[in-house]
């Protein structure tokens, strides 16, 4: 996710403002959903044929929303004591078992439908 230095800056930013009191796991999870929705809103009503144009025109807004999502995820990982690299590596291995290449290649079906 973030470098240790950037994460330390992020935690200090929050600490300076005394925002830890508001950052419960539930509140952060809710905020994550809101920020993901704001990212999705940028693409709402965009046709596939217009996607690249939207990305180009809205690049700064997309970057800002992605940053918000990353910040909130970083707080969650930090506060819950979960190593993001380990969590992703573990999930990747579970997904390998659920989606073997010979069954999943080229299909968007859920694991129990392949």
Q: What's the short version?
A:
The protein has 114 residues and is mainly α. Helix content is 70%, strand content 0%. Helix 2 runs antiparallel to helix 4 (59-80).
Describe this structure in words.
With 114 residues, the protein is mainly alpha-helical. It folds into two domains: 1-82, MazG-like (Helix Hairpins); 83-114, no CATH class. The chain is built from six helices and no strands. The chain has helices at residues 4-16, 25-43, 51-57, 59-80, 84-98, 101-104. Helix 2 packs antiparallel against helix 4. The mean pLDDT is 96.
What is the CATH architecture descriptor of the largest domain?
Answer: Orthogonal Bundle
Q: Would you report the number of β strands?
A: 0
The main β sheet shows up as: none
Q: Can you identify the CATH superfamily of the largest domain?
A: MazG-like
Instruction: Report low-confidence residues grouped into runs of 5 or more.
Output: none
Morphology: globular
């Amino acid at each position: 996710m973030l470098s240790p230095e950037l994460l330390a800056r992020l935690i200090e930013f929050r600490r300076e403002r005394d925002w830890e009191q508001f950052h419960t796991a539930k509140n952060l999870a809710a905020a994550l959903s809101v920020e993901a929705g704001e990212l999705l809103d940028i693409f709402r009503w965009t046709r596939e044929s217009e996607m690249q144009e939207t990305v180009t025109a809205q690049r700064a807004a997309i970057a800002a929303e992605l940053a918000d999502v990353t910040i909130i995820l970083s707080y969650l990982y930090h506060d819950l004591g979960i190593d993001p690299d380990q969590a992703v590596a573990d999930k990747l291995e579970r997904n390998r078992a659920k989606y073997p290449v010979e069954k999943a290649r080229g299909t968007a079906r859920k694991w129990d439908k392949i």
